Amino acid sequence: MATGNNPGGAPLQPAYILHRRNYGNSSLLLECFTPAGGRFPAIARGASARFSKGASMPQPFQPFWLKLAGRGEVRTLAACEAAAGPAPLQGERLYCAFYLNELLLRLLPRDDPHALLFDRYAQTLTELSDGVAADLLRRFEVALLQALGYGAPLHLEASGGRPVMAEARYHYHLEEGPIRNEPPAGAEVSGATLLALAGERPFDDLCRREARALMRRLIDHYLGGRPLKSRELFRQPGRG
Predict the structure, then answer these.
(1) Which of 32, 79, 205, 230 is the most exposed place for a label (fewest CB within 10 A)?
(2) May I ask the CATH class of domain 4-82?
(3) What was the pLDDT predicted at 6?
(4) How far apart are CA 79 and CA 226, in angstroms?
């Protein structure tokens, strides 16, 4: 999403809204995500009146241009323009989008810019409408952990840096990465699964099952055991 400007020349920031809730009698408290500012809160004052007159209502899963005022911890939304329509998500794919937002809200520190992660998030929302949802979620999880400095290389062995082989079996150690031919001490996965997570080969059914188990273990570790509410939406086996 390119940088935009309003007619008066004031900068508008590309943004997504990760969460919103009512604030006071007529305002909204927004959790915003921008490439230059990262994740931060902003207040849309008098929102019920402003957005009833045809202005774009800030909502999740839709790209916006935002103009912000103030330099404190909580900014003020001065202007809001839709950059495109909302992602056409329904059912399970909508649940996936809620999951992405909750991951960012829970793991991404405030005021920590991640332009590449912002682009990956926007791409994932777009591809969720017709892509394989499970594959997109796994690769976003990998991108998020790597952006936060938690992701060990998936395509190289932790010991010696040898390339991961698709036909081999590995134990994935937290904070270290994949180790081959070692007594079980981490999540066991195939090299094919690790390479699929790294984006170097497509997922098959076995890779999807192993990748889901591995990434859940990693995400849960960095969440400190705190449950994700969005996972409750995936009640049927094989979802998410």
Answers:
(1) 205
(2) mainly beta
(3) 47
(4) 35
| CB neighbourhood size of 17 (10 A) | 24
Domain with CATH 2.40.50.140 in the chain: 4-82
pTM above 0.85, yes or no: yes
CATH number given to 91-233: 1.20.1440.120
Q: What is residue 58's predicted lDDT score, i.e. its pLDDT?
A: 86
Output 195-204 pairs: Cβ under 8 A, ≥24 positions apart: 195/154, 195/155, 195/164, 195/166, 196/135, 196/138, 197/138, 197/139, 197/142, 197/154, 198/142, 198/153, 198/154, 198/155, 199/139, 200/155, 201/166, 202/135, 203/132, 203/134, 203/135, 203/138
Residue with the two structure tokens 């007529």: 26
Dist CA 133 CA 127 (whole Å)? 8
Q: Smallest Cα–Cα separation from 110: which of 59, 50, 162, 34?
A: 34
Tens-digit pLDDT profile for residues 22-41: 988 889 999 999 999 999 99
Tell how far CA 50 is from the center of its chain: 29
- Two tokens, residue 72: 């404190």
Give the residue range(s) of CATH 1.20.1440.120 domains in the chain. 91-233
* Segments of the chain scoring below 50 in pLDDT: 1-9, 237-240
Tokens of 131: 């892509």
* Count of beta carbons in the 10 Å neighbourhood of residue 56: 16
Q: What is the pLDDT of residue 212?
A: 96
Q: Determine the Cα–Cα distance for residues 32 and 102; give it in Å rounded to an integer.
A: 13
